[in-house]
Amino acid sequence: MRHLPLAVPHMSETEAEEVFGWILDGEASEEEIARFLLAMTDRSETAEEIAGAARALRARLIPVAAPEGTVDCCGTGGDGHHTLNVSTAVSLVVAACGVPVAKHGNRAASSKAGAADTLEALGLDMDAAGRTAEKTLAEIGICFLFAKNHHPAMGRIQPIRQKLGKRTIFNLMGPLSNPAGVKRQLIGIARPGYVPIYADAKARLGTERTFIVSGDESIDELSLAGGNELADVTGNDFEMRRVSADMAGLEHAPVEAIRGGDPAHNAKALKALLDGMPGAYRDAVLFNAAGTLIVAGRTEDWREGAAMAAEALDSGKAAHLLARWIELAK
């Protein structure tokens, strides 16, 4: 067995890739891994470490074929706000706009309802969705890439994460290791001040275009409440800017307005959203969908992106897409 460094010194990208290779290959004990992850969280991970760890995870994933222009929209989780599943709804809306979406996700690790939990409560057979991922992505433009199916090395890590019950570097690695190899993403993280560090990690890995976003109240998505930090990552570089809901023609609302619950609660809210329910949840989805549509190259205007997303909801396209997905994933 390998012994992980006790003091967890800052590592180079190459060193991080090697150490996380040991962790993912089961060459360290659960106790050492848990201590190591907590120590990294306490002192904050560097861009080099995140990029190196993501490279280790990428090297061990099971890939899937994806159409050109496929995107992903996800949050790193661990923000403690327990909101409704925004990125899951955004995935349906963006796919209904004609942009292929490879939704990479998992069950809840530190929240009450992860993307997989809520989709399952809506009637999607998660095992079947995994088996038919390439088929549904090719035929209807959406799939769910259940992390356990594509990152077998994570099987031994997930119980450790659940036991810890808090954010670790694995929250940061997941969005950077989509099995469809997406080149365009919107990724929400739970720390506004950390956006440039995470953007640096993404730039080290390369991308056509990715938005790294964080609400001022430490929420891992574009927030309606106030302002948002946004890093626009293209190629191996990025630039920072500020964005807010009014840029998309949307009303501000407190985080409490989109507070979620267990999978059944969140699934009911998502179903109501698809059926035309107005309110803060809808606006949060429109805001994040607008950002994802910009990243996808469908528009450069926040208001136009929100309008495109609204049409996908109001026309019933997003609801129809979910029904088709449930039917095909059997």
TrEMBL record:
Source species of the chain: Altererythrobacter litoralis
Protein name: Anthranilate phosphoribosyltransferase
Cofactor remark from the record: Binds 2 magnesium ions per monomer.
Domain of life: Bacteria
Positions bound to anthranilate 1: 75, 106
Bilayer-spanning residue ranges: none
Residues that bind Mg(2+) 1: 87, 221
Chain positions recorded as 5-phospho-alpha-D-ribose 1-diphosphate binding sites: 75, 78-79, 83, 85-88, 103-111, 115
